[in-house]
Amino acid sequence: MTVVADLIKKLQQRTVTLATCESLTGGGLGAAITSVPGASKVYRGGLITYARDLKHTLAGVDQELIDTEGVVNELTALQMAVGAQRRCEADWAIATTGVAGPTEADGAKVGTVWFAVVGPKVGMSPAPQYTELREFEGDREAIREAATEHAFEMLMRVL
Question: How many CB atoms neighbour CB 13 within 10 A?
Answer without folding.
Answer: 10
